[in-house]
Design goal:
By secondary structure, the protein is an alpha+beta fold. 38% of the residues lie in helices and 27% in strands. It is built from three helices and four strands; from the N terminus they run βαβαββα. Strand 1, helix 1 and strand 2 form a beta-alpha-beta unit. The radius of gyration is 12 Å and the shape is globular. The termini are close together.
């Protein structure tokens, strides 16, 4: 099963949109989803702070700011 990580923060509209794309895909394609809030963690804020949302699939960063539903489907089908 694929593992997807969503780096996010509270109050981020783009993050909510990305999460909805992930949940919609998850309805038809099972995968493990972990949501990580970057706030309060200096290392995560440095790595992802201005680029969130960031989506990582099986350790590979695939999306930042916007999640393309078709590209996500292809990444999870491999």
């Amino acid at each position: 099963m694929k593992r997807v990580v969503l780096y996010t923060r509270d109050g981020c509209g783009l993050c909510e949109t990305a999460k909805q794309v992930l949940l919609a895909e998850r309805a038809g394609t099972p995968f493990e989803l972990e949501e990580i809030d970057v706030e309060g963690d200096d290392a995560l804020e440095m790595a992802y702070g201005i680029r969130i949302p960031v989506v990582v699939v099986d350790g590979e960063e695939l999306f930042e700011l916007v999640v393309d539903p078709d590209a996500l489907s292809r990444a999870l089908a491999d």
